[in-house]
Design brief:
Largest sheet of chain B: 3 strands, mixed
Mean pLDDT of chain A: 89
CATH topology of the largest domain in chain A: Rossmann fold
Radius of gyration of chain B: 37 Å
Low-confidence stretches of chain B: 175-214, 257-332, 361-369
Number of helices of chain B: 14
Order of helices and strands of chain B: HHHHHHHEEHHHHEHHEEH
Strand order of the largest sheet of chain B: 1-2-3
Oligomer: heterodimer
Shape of chain B: rod-shaped
Helix content of chain B: 40-55%
CATH architecture of the largest domain in chain A: 3-Layer(aba) Sandwich
Number of helices of chain A: 14
CATH superfamily of the largest domain in chain A: P-loop containing nucleotide triphosphate hydrolases
Strand content of chain B: under 5%
Largest interface: A-B, 19 and 19 residues
Low-confidence stretches of chain A: none
Distance between the termini of chain A: 35 Å
Mean pLDDT of chain B: 66
Chain lengths: 336, 425
Amino acid sequence: MTPTVAEAAIRDFQDTFTAVRREIGKVVVGHEHAIDTILGAFFAGGHVLIEGVPGIGKTLIVRSLAETLNLTFNRVQFTVDLMPADITGTRVINEGAAGRREFVFVPGPVFAHVLLADEINRATPKTQSALLEAMAEQQVTVAGTSYPLAPPFFVLATLNPIEMEGTYQLPEAQLDRFLFKVGLDYPSADELERILAETTAADLPAVRPVLARETAAERVEVLKHLVRQVLVAPHMERHVAALVRATVPAAGQLPEAMARYVTYGSSPRGGQALILGAKVTALLAGRPHITFEDVERVALPALCHRLVMSYAAEAAGVGAAQVVEGVLASARRARA
Amino acid sequence: MPEPTPADALDRMRRQVRAVRWRRNLHELQRALYHLIATLAGAAATLVVLALRTAPGPFAAATWAVAAATLLLAAWLAGALVRRWLSPARAPLWIDARSGLEGRLATALELGHRGAAGAPFFPLLVEDNARRLPTWRPERLLPDGLPSGAFAGALAAVGVFLLVLLLAPWLRPGAAPVASSEVTGDEPVRGHIVIARRAGRQAGESVLAPFAEPDEDDERSALSRLPDALQERIQARLWGEDREPARRAMERAERGHSPGPEGGAPPADRLADTSEPEERWAVVRKAPRGARPAPGATAAASAGETPTDGSATPAADGERGGEAGAHQAAAGAGTGSDPNLFGAASAERAARERFDLPLAARVRAQGGAHEAPSPGEAPAPAPDAHPDLGERQRRDAPVPRMRVPPVYEAAVRAVFAHRASEEAP
């Protein structure tokens, strides 16, 4: 790839990203950082877990994303009686024209480019694991037969932090499969006024597709491939590895004050998430390589949900974000 | 003209990185050197001022403090130099951070080493770097060839040091002359205690002399004698022969004494005051009129020892000439008195120890002794009829004893000796 072509490719990525961002911004008021993070995870090829109270626009963000990119979208409301087959699909007996009966696979809602798994913690672990297999393997297995999912496949699951009764907390192993975890806060007063004005008017805002339906999936895959081509210098790999290692208490690099709050640190997937997220950030900045700042920008959504905090942390009110911030600050000092 | 390849551009970048690295490291080396010079000059100036203005005790403490501070500062400077030293691996990162290249240079060079030339974005990165080469030229990145701040600091510190050397003659404390005389063959005046100073270290001796030949009486280690030697050396170099009065004045100042209005303390006071191990004081008493001093008696007296030439028994000496030796009755104590009037002699004690001198006996200071009355004259009143107690001392609560260094024992015994021949009528 010549420098000119590379520059054009980077510019195309920036333009597409900006266009999608702008279209989503038409219907979603506020949450700019969360939307950027979700879009970053989408182009990095990961999945996102959103935590937020009901009614703050989680579903709207995901639907707008799918509509803007002109990709297929499905939504599954997870409940305690939801079965794995309700997500993956099932085999039904179908009678053919000749009167012969045979099992036919009926795809479930997971067969879409963008899937919203709403309140994923309300389903049983068995159902959750059905979705998580699809997220990790990009395929589902029904009755011993694997069915690949058409790329791009993007899952956006939501967690409701209230009404925890009758919920099944996602195990750490399953949380680890989400590239980023994003928290959605309440809108500010100004944002709330804009939400009220825009959603109660006669003409509701609507998004306009940025990509053509026929080529949307292919274009998205090209852009995702471009993200993978961003250069990572050895010193950046060392830096990311050191950051991930620093979150592990057993490694002995966490300060004593912080180490007692962390039971388990980040897995290597955390490092992958840091680098992939940093690559998207670098492309958005027009750079063909990642920097320390790119990594720092995605560190909180990439690492926080991978840390298992101790009871001491809960008692002291120390969150994973504080630990990650501490690790970043130490790394910054070491660099200076 | 062929278009430059990424390899050419990488070579240019590497060369420029090397140049920047050299310039930066040279700069840091100079800075460390100037800081070191400033530190040493400051320490030297401080030591010189302290040597000229303080007594040996405080000077020793200050010397070690200054030496420790200088060592710590030098270690810190070395550590800072190591931290700031640009290694080949660190240099691109440093240039990136300094020039706002956002990691372009380090990424390109590291990936170039790794052989990532085939990566799709690599040519773009190299081209981007080649475009930015002028932004981090060595002269632009490090415009100052000389670390001017550090250089000025070093210059100022050296200037202060030279100034201190120039002002040294004016830094001498105002010292009143102390009556003393070197031990010579001259006869001291009868009836007076003559302070004889043992030959100490001469001005020309090496600073390392205390390591070579420690004083027999001095139990301190060679290291602990070093500050004294250093101070003497500094004073000798800057004041020459005029240093002794100033030195004694500083010693008195250290003990909180000020020179008397007539310029010196009484001899007995001086005896008590002199704690400098290199300056031993002893009492040389004049032999009775007409008698020749025994050979070596002066030297023995100067060392604070009893003559051992065997010319006369100590008891006989005590009877005839008023001399009293160790473990013998003091002169004038009479034959019936306690021969161990002042307690056991303590010649074997350490030089810096003290022994208790009972003062129950009536005091008769030798310095205040009156000459024997000439024939036909009335004798002077007995000087020790009323002991010369301190102004605030109450007669009903006299100081029963005082602590005296053993080296002064002979002198003290002589001062407090009772001699029948000189008793007041």
